[in-house]
Amino acid sequence: MPDALQQRLINPIVRLAWAWKLPIPGDALLETTGSRTGRRRYTPVCDGLDGDVFWLVSQRGRRADWVRNVEAEPRVRVKVGSGPRARWRAGTARLVEDDDPRERQRILAGSDLMRRLCLGTSKAVNASPLTVRIDLDPP
Known about the structure:
The chain is of the alpha+beta class. About 35% of the residues lie in helices and about 30% in strands. It has helices spanning about 1-20, 65-70, 100-110, 115-125, and strands at about 25-35, 40-45, 50, 55-60, 75-80, 85-95, 130-135. The longest helix has 18 residues, at about 1-20.
């Protein structure tokens, strides 16, 4: 049930907030290329920006659609920031099998209240979490 709630209610609201240029603080937007369709896909994620690296934790591990997209095409973009300062950053994603995703969430959550709220909410539905690292291109 939490997956259905996330995909059918929460994600569309967050995507709409980004479209209206009113992103929810602590959130970011991930753009991947669909593994079967080749179309651009947009997934709301928690803001995992750390310098020139963007960290993500997939709640559903390799079963998440966006993870399958990353495996098929690792070139992605993330939109970070708020309001008119929000910017797209391109980078290359890779799965980090030997990282502890729960520890990664703890590290990321420690830096910002809104990020902590986002990560705390997503942690509640972790079934088989997996860390994904995006090495961002220079700005």
